[in-house]
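C-alpha cells please, single chain.
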Amino acid sequence: MEAGYQVHLANTSAMQQYEGLKYIDDTRDSFWLAKMLRLKILPEGYIYPKETRSVRDLLRKRMMLVQQRTAHILSMQTMGKP
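Here you go.
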C-alpha cells in the first residue's frame, strides 16, 4: 500500500472451497482469487489504516482483559455456592 499498489485482503473463512480443479498449487490458487476479484465476489477483510492500528490493538487488549475479569468474577461467584 505504501508503494502505491492496491491491496486486497481475502477473507478465507468466508470463501467456499472451489471444486473441479485436478491440481491445487499457488499458481492455480492465485488465478482463482484473481477471477473472484474480477467478478467482484471475493470476500475481503478490512485493512486498518496505519494511523488507527494502535487504537485497534488497544481495544483488542481491553476486550481481552474485560473477558478475563468477567471469567474470574464468575469463577469466584461459583466458589461461594455449596
